Amino acid sequence: MIGRFRKKLKSAVYGMVPRSRLLQRGPTGRARVALTFDDGPNELTAGFLERLDELGVRATFFLVGNKCEAQPDLMREYTRRGHQVASHGYDHTRFTQLSWGALVDQLDKTDRVLGRQPTSRPWVRPPHGAVDARVLGQLLAYDRLIALWSYDPRDYEVHDKDEIARRCRPERVSHGEVILLHEGRQSTLDALPAIVGGLRDGGYEMVTMAEMFASP
Ligand SMILES: [Zn+2]
Description:
By secondary structure, the protein is of the alpha/beta class. Helix content is 43%, strand content 15%. It has nine helices and eight strands. The chain has helices at residues 2-15, 45-55, 65-70, 72-80, 100-114, 133-141, 161-167, 186-201, 209-214, and strands at residues 22-23, 32-40, 60-63, 84-87, 123-124, 145-147, 177-182, 205-206. The longest helix has 16 residues, at 186-201.
């Protein structure tokens, strides 16, 4: 009951935001999906980058500021290889738990370490997708673009690569899907060839979120 109420409240809160400032599903005119990976960089990042190179896929990575600071060389590898990087907060605290000042501080510090982004506004994916009316208002006031997702295969709750790949089968997604995955999970890394192969067999092209939302 409470879960359903929360869901309703969340969609009501999202409804207050202009569609151009809150990204969930991309344009549905073309058979494209965007793979997105949260929570890096970490010890598996090199593996993710290698695997995606082998598969010829560009993805969007939502990175945690303090982890980027700790590994600046690794951080540059994402963009060098053509991936999109964007903010996932400075230390992964839920934005709803931060004061106004602390949230501004997190946004600024993370954007500084990420460097210039090719998009007109800095993008941010709030940790855990946790937002309320105040946080949304503040993100808009600070000119951020809120980048969420449209499909969560819940890769964080399974350790079986085949199950993760099954959850990302082409029949489970549709045009414009933004798929939420997590860096730092070995099973997700191991599932990538099957995920990408399956989506390609289903006729899907994989693009970054920035590419997806830049053109209809
Ligand atoms: Zn996260």
